[in-house]
């Protein structure tokens, strides 16, 4: 059984269980929406102000929401010791990571895209002309957050103070991707192509480095 | 029970140590389990039974020593029934078994799953979520999952936990059939029961070491009853 077919089977399971309960999607969506609405009503920014600080706010909201989303990722597998059943069944444990990070990326991306219209309206930021670029940035950054977050979720799930540990490890580690994503989003809204390519390159390198690290060392993270 | 599609296999623990920090869960455990044996591990909580079974399942790496399998050249992984059910509550038994069958590359997974659900008496509830099941029904799903790939070796960690007398009766009957089909069975138990009587060998662990190992009647019984002391 190849790595890809194992990953596809596991991804199917992740999607089925989530779309059955909608637990993660609902929590994350409501959390980000609350932040977007709250800040918009509190500061009532002008269009110029929005272009300057709204991208940072948006990505900060995504980052906090992703720590909510990633927390149960491996904790759920501990409930009935299903992680052991998966380890006994897959030919390559990397498939477990691949499926989980693919599912997390999809959930995060879906939430971001659903929230984009609310962001546009509340902050008066037109995004239609750069939508395709924005989707690319959302995808690359969500992938980066999911890659690092899934690995950290596996580590924290086995620790004693697991609820505290994940955000504690994740937030500093993901600060570079948060800054780059916010900068790229601002550049898109300001039509600044130099920053755009630099930022996209940085996020892509971040994704490749962390994915390679999980591929090399992920097996050890799943061991008891 | 479906016709066995496995070759008998045994296993050998050689000088196994397992340390968690400074604490020894197992200390210099050496055992040879012959193909077809039904071994009952007894001992108090924390004596090392679960750790030994998880090492045999290759879920835990020993700190020292080695584990090897004998008999069939390619016996495959043992089937493992843990203290937890190892199945997803939010899926149906059919979805659970299909998931693991596909991961293991079981040929014709739908047929295999349908046969196993019939075998464990859950065919009529195959579309109900596992979270709606009683402990006994969950244990049936757990056993079906462990048998998916027709393992030659079956590892069971306190398989009767939480079962009512009817469930224990079903488990004993199932284990009886599995033992008679030539599978090697290693199980940890607390005390003497309908299930322990299926054992052909009893091993007592204490503080991570083997302190008694017998195949004879009187000593066999004393090992199991002492576990309750």
Overview of this protein structure:
The complex is a heterodimer of chains A (224) and B (229). Chain A has 224 residues and is mainly α. Chain A has one domain. Chain A contains nine helices and no strands. Chain A has helices at 3-21, 23-43, 47-70, 72-79, 82-89, 94-123, 131-157, 162-190, 193-222. Chain B folds into two domains: 1-78 and 152-229, P-loop containing nucleotide triphosphate hydrolases (Rossmann fold, 3-Layer(aba) Sandwich); 88-150. Helices cover 31% and strands 27% of the residues of chain B. Chain B has helices at residues 49-56, 93-104, 109-119, 135-147, 165-180, 217-226, and strands spanning 9-20, 23-33, 38-42, 64-71, 79-81, 153-157, 184-188, 201-206, 209-214. In chain B, helix 2 packs across helix 3. The model of chain B has no long low-confidence stretch (mean pLDDT 88).
Order of helices and strands of chain A: HHHHHHHHH
Put simply, the count of helices of chain A is 9
CATH class of the largest domain in chain B: Alpha Beta
Radius of gyration of chain B: 17 Å
Q: What kind of sheet is the major sheet of chain B?
A: 6 strands, mixed
**What percent of residues of chain B adopt helix (DSSP H or I)?**
25-40%
User: What fraction, in percent, of the residue positions of chain A are helical?
Assistant: over 70%
Q: Structural class per helix/strand content of chain B? A: alpha/beta
Count the E strands of chain B.
Answer: 9
Short summary:
The complex is a heterodimer of chains A (224) and B (229). Chain A is mostly helical. Chain A has helices at residues 3-21, 23-43, 47-70, 72-79, 82-89, 94-123, 131-157, 162-190, 193-222.
Topology:
The complex is a heterodimer of chains A (224) and B (229).
Chain A (H helix, E strand, L loop, with lengths): L2 H19 L1 H21 L3 H24 L1 H8 L2 H8 L4 H30 L7 H27 L4 H29 L2 H30 L2
Helix pairs in contact in A: 1-6, 2-3, 2-6, 3-6, 3-7, 3-8, 4-7, 6-7, 7-8, 7-9, 8-9
Chain B lengths: L8 E12 L2 E11 L4 E5 L6 H8 L7 E8 L7 E3 L11 H12 L4 H11 L15 H13 L5 E5 L7 H16 L3 E5 L12 E6 L2 E6 L2 H10 L3
Parallel strand pairs in B: 3-7, 3-8, 5-6, 6-7
Antiparallel strand pairs in B: 1-2, 1-4, 8-9
């Amino acid at each position: 059984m190849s790595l890809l077919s194992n990953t596809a089977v596991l991804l199917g399971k992740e999607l089925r269980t989530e779309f059955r309960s909608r637990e993660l999607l609902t929590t994350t969506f409501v959390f980000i929406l609350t932040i977007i609405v709250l800040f918009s009503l509190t500061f009532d920014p002008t269009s110029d102000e929005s272009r300057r600080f709204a991208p940072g706010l948006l990505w900060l909201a995504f980052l906090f929401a992703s720590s909510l989303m990633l927390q149960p990722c491996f904790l759920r597998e501990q409930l009935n010791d299903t992680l052991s059943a998966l380890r006994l069944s897959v030919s390559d444990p990397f498939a477990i990571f691949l499926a989980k990070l693919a599912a997390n990326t999809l959930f995060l991306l879906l939430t971001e895209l659903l929230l984009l219209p609310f962001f546009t309206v509340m902050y008066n930021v037109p995004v239609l002309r750069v939508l395709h670029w924005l989707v690319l940035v959302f995808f690359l950054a969500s992938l980066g957050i999911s890659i690092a977050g899934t690995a950290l979720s596996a580590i924290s799930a086995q620790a004693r103070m697991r609820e505290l540990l994940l955000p504690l490890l994740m937030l500093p580690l993901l600060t570079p991707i948060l800054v780059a994503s916010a900068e790229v989003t601002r550049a898109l809204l300001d039509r600044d192509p130099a920053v755009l390519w630099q930022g996209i390159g940085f996020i892509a390198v971040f994704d490749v480095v962390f994915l390679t690290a999980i591929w090399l060392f992920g097996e050890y993270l799943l061991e008891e | 029970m479906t016709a066995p599609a496995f070759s008998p296999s045994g296993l050998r623990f050689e000088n196994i140590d397992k340390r968690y920090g400074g604490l020894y869960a197992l200390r210099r455990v050496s055992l040879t389990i012959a193909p077809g044996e039904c071994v009952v591990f007894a001992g108090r909580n924390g004596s090392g039974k679960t750790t030994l079974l998880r090492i045999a399942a290759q879920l835990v790496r020993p700190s020292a020593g080695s584990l090897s399998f004998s008999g069939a050249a390619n016996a495959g992984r043992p089937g493992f029934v843990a203290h937890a059910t190892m199945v997803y509550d939010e899926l149906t038994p059919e979805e659970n078994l299909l998931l693991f069958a596909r991961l293991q590359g079981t040929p014709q997974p739908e047929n295999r799953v349908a046969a196993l659900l019939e075998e464990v008496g859950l065919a009529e509830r195959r579309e109900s979520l596992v979270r709606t099941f009683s402990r006994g029904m969950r244990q049936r799903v757990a056993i079906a999952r462990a048998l998916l790939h027709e393992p030659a070796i079956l590892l069971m960690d306190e398989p009767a936990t939480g079962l009512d007398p009817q469930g224990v009766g079903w488990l004993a009957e199932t284990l009886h059939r599995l033992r008679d089909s030539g599978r090697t069975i290693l199980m940890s138990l607390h005390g003497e029961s309908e299930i322990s009587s299926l054992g052909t060998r009893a091993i007592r662990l204490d503080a991570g070491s083997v302190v008694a190992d017998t195949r004879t009647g009187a000593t066999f019984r004393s090992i199991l009853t002492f576990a309750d002391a």
